[in-house]
Fold:
Amino acid sequence: MSKFHIDCLLEYSVSQATEFIFQVEAAQHEWQHTLAEHVSITPAQLNIQHFERDQSSNRLIRISAAENSRVRLHYSAHVETNIPQRPLDAVENTIAQLPAESLFYLAPSRFCESDLLVNMAIRTFGNSPTGYQRVQAICDWIYNNINYESGSSNNTTSAKDILINRAGVCRDFAHLGIAICRALNIPARFVFGYMPFYKALPDFHAIFEVYLGQQWILFDATNMGTIDEFVRVGTGLDAKDVPFASLFGTAELIKIYPQITKL
Amino acid sequence: MSKFHIDCLLEYSVSQATEFIFQVEAAQHEWQHTLAEHVSITPAQLNIQHFERDQSSNRLIRISAAENSRVRLHYSAHVETNIPQRPLDAVENTIAQLPAESLFYLAPSRFCESDLLVNMAIRTFGNSPTGYQRVQAICDWIYNNINYESGSSNNTTSAKDILINRAGVCRDFAHLGIAICRALNIPARFVFGYMPFYKALPDFHAIFEVYLGQQWILFDATNMGTIDEFVRVGTGLDAKDVPFASLFGTAELIKIYPQITKL
Amino acid sequence: MSKFHIDCLLEYSVSQATEFIFQVEAAQHEWQHTLAEHVSITPAQLNIQHFERDQSSNRLIRISAAENSRVRLHYSAHVETNIPQRPLDAVENTIAQLPAESLFYLAPSRFCESDLLVNMAIRTFGNSPTGYQRVQAICDWIYNNINYESGSSNNTTSAKDILINRAGVCRDFAHLGIAICRALNIPARFVFGYMPFYKALPDFHAIFEVYLGQQWILFDATNMGTIDEFVRVGTGLDAKDVPFASLFGTAELIKIYPQITKL
Amino acid sequence: MSKFHIDCLLEYSVSQATEFIFQVEAAQHEWQHTLAEHVSITPAQLNIQHFERDQSSNRLIRISAAENSRVRLHYSAHVETNIPQRPLDAVENTIAQLPAESLFYLAPSRFCESDLLVNMAIRTFGNSPTGYQRVQAICDWIYNNINYESGSSNNTTSAKDILINRAGVCRDFAHLGIAICRALNIPARFVFGYMPFYKALPDFHAIFEVYLGQQWILFDATNMGTIDEFVRVGTGLDAKDVPFASLFGTAELIKIYPQITKL
Structure:
C-alpha cells in the first residue's frame, strides 16, 4: 500500500472558442482509492460537465472556453494504491480461455497496427518463453532497440513508425508493446496516469497492460519509474482513445505540470 | 415497418484446432425486433458461448473447433424493422452539443485514419452545406470516385489506402465515409448487417452511421440497396472491431451465404 | 520561336559551413538556345565548380560556403526557345517500340511510386483513348481532383501522398502525372525550369514529359502558364533527382526570385 | 585474381505476347574481365536486341516473345575478377570532396527512402567510427537485426518496410544498407550479380557499394558468401533500376538457375 499526492496543472491560452475534454482524474479502479480530490477550473465556467466512459473506469471533464480566454485546470488528489505483486509466472491464455471483455483488446487500433506486425512479432518473440516472460522480453527489446527522445514523434506516430524511426516517447513505447502483444494474441491496452520520475520533469506517463493468467498486468518498456508507484487515470485502446486533453477549437498549451509525490 | 427473413450459412474446413468468434445475429436495437431466430452449429460443440459486447448491442458466439473438423453455422431469423425516415434537415452538432457516448466515435481507428485525412476532408467538403447534406455529399463523392470491385482490397486495407487505390468493397466505402466524417468532427461508426441486393449475390453488407441532430443516421456510399431494408448485426469503430467472424487457428472459409429476403 | 530574359536570384543565410549544389542554368537542349548568360555568386568563392550530369543536359554548380556567411547567387540569361507544336495525334508505343534510353523512365522512383498505382491507373485511365489524349486525360484528372495549394506538401511528399491529401504544388502535380504514366508503361520524367506566370509570383516551375510517338512531349497538369513559354533547366527521375538546390550543412533560404520575362 | 564459370538458365512460359528485358551478362567493369561468353535464347527470336545503359556498365537484352511460347535464356561465361583488397581505413568524404558522378547516389530512390531514415541513421550510427568501419557497422546491424527469410518480402518492399518486418532477402538487405548510407551522406548504390553460395541454392545475389576515400567499395550485409567471389552484372539506384528481368506482358517464371563455380 502506497500513498501519493497529485498536483496537476494545465494551462491554455484560448484564441478562438474551444471545447476541451480533459481526463486527469485518478480512475475508479480496484487497485487504487482516492482519499480526497479537488478540481478547480478558471475562469469559472458556465458549462462544466463531468462524465464517465461507459465501459471503463475513465472519468472525463468537458468545458467550453470562450475566445481570448485563459483556461487553467488544477487537479489535486490524495490516492492510495495497492498494485498486486508482479505475477512472474502468469501464463498466456488460449483464445478459448480469454474472458469476453478482454477480446476487444486483441484487435488493431489506430496507433497499434498489430495486424501489420504479426510476422515481426512471431519472428522476434515466437521462440521466447511464453506468458509473463514473453511480455517482459518484449519490453526489454523495446527498451534496447528504441531510443527515448523527447520530440522524436508526433501525434500521428504509430507503432509501425516507431520501428522505422527507432525513437519515441512513453506513449510510443506503450503503443509498440501493445501492438506486438496483440499480434501474438495477447490482449493489451493503453494505460496512462501519474508516476514519479526521478530523472525527468513531471509529466503524464503512458504504459500498457496485458491480460495473462486471470488478470491484467501493467508493463512499462521505458524503465522511467517504478510500476507500483503508478496512479491510473485512463485505460483504452491507445493514446487517441484516452488522451489527457482533446481540444476542438484554437488554443495553445501554455503549461503542463502533472506532479506526483510519494508520501 | 418491414419484415425480413434471414438465412445465413457459414461453413469452414478446420485443419488445426480453431477458436471462432461469430457475429451473425440480428442486433438488439430500437429500430428492429427479432420475432424468431435460430442458431445451429455442427458438429454439436462442447463449448458454445453466447455473449454480448458490454457497451453495445453486439451479440457474439464463441466456439472451439477441433482439428480436421468441418464447422457449419446456420442462422435463421424473422426480423421486423422500422428505420426512421431520413431526416434530411438533420444538423451538425458543435462538440459541446454532442452526447458523451458519441465522442468515442470522433477518434481515428485502425481502418479510419481520420487524423491523416483532416486536410483532405476540409479541402473537399469544407464548403458543402453542413449536416445531412454534407454527409450525403461525402457519400456521393465516394460513390463517384471509388470503384466498387470485388477483390480490390484486403483485410489490411484502410481508408487512406482506398484514396490511393480508388477501389474497394462495401467495408472500404464505409471506412472512407467514417474517416472523412470524423475528420470533420462528425461522430461516425461502422455498421454491418444484412441487406437485400438486387444486382449482386447475397453477402454481409457494411455501411456507416453518423450522429447528426440528436440521432444516429445510417448512410451507404455504395448504393447497392435500400437503407430501410437493412437489418443491423454489428456496430463498432470499424470492420476490425465488429467482424462477422474472427478466427484463431487454421481454417478455411468454404461457404458464405448470408441471404435476406423481404417478406 | 520565342525569346526570354531570365533573372534568377537565390539568397541563403549560412550558419554552419554548407556545400551547395545549384541547378539554375538553362539546359543544353535541342528546343532551346542560350544567347547569353551570366552567373554571379557572392561572396567570391574559392571553390566554384561547374559540372554536368553525365547522361543528360543538366548543368550544375557546386560551391562551399563558410559558416556565418551569406550566399547570393544571381543567374541571368537570354534564351531562345522553339518547342515543337503539340502533336495531338502522338501514339503510345509498345515496349518493343521504345528506344532503350526511354526505358529508364518506366521504373518507379522515390516520389513517383508507379508500381503502387498500377491498379489506380488502369481503373481510371484504362479506357481512355490512348496516346496524347490519354496523357491529356491524366492531366485533366489531376487538375480537377487535386487542389493547387502552397504549403500543402513538403519535401517528402510523394505521388501516393498526393492522392490522399488531394492537394499539392507544381512538383506534386508532376510527380502524380509521372507515376500514372509509368504505371501505364508510358515513359515519363520530371522537368523543371522557368515559366512566366500571370497569376502567381515568379517561381521555378515543375512539369513532366512523356515519350509518345518518337518524341518527348511536355505536359503540365497545373495549367499555370503556357507550355511553349517554358525554359528547361533540369530533366530527371523526379524532384529529388534534379532539385534547383541541394544543401549539405546549415543554411536558410532568405530569398528566391526566379523571374522570367517573355521578350 | 580468381576465375569463375557462370551457367545461368532462365525459363518462362509465355501466355500472352511479352516483351522481356534481361540483364544477366557480366558487366564491363575494371574489376572483371570476360574471357568468353555465350547467350542463347530459344525459340530463335526475330527480334533480339543487345544494348547498354548510357552511363553505366549495364548490358541488356531485349526480346519479344509470342503468345503461347516458352522462352529459354541460357548465358554461360568465363570471367576473371580482381576485386581490390578491402581498404579497411577508407574515409568518408565531405560533400565537397565527392566526385560529381557519385552525387547522384546520395538521393533517395523508390526502394531506398533515405530521406525518411535520416533520424534513424543518425540515432543508430551517428556515433560509430566513420568511414569503412561505419559502413561495416551498418552491415553488422542489418545482419543482426533483420532475418534472412525467403518469401518474407515482395517486389514492392522497400527499406522502410524491412525495418517494420525485420525480415527480407538479399535485395532488401542491400536496400536498407543503401538507404542508411545515403541518409548519412555516403553515396551508395545497388549491385547485383553472381556469387557462389555454400549453404543455399544458386541465385542472383544483391549487394551494395559505397563511395569512400576515392573508390567504390562493395559491402554485403547478408554474409552469404565471399565478396571477392562476386561477379558483377548490374549497378544502379536500386533493384527496380537494374532487375535481372523486366516483363511487359503475361509470362510465368518456370525456372531460374544462375549457377556460378569458382575454377
About this structure: The domain at 95-236 of chain C is CATH 3.10.620.30 (C8orf32 fold). The longest strand of chain C covers residues 2-22. DSSP finds five helices and twelve strands in chain C. Chain C has two domains: 2-82+243-262, 95-236.
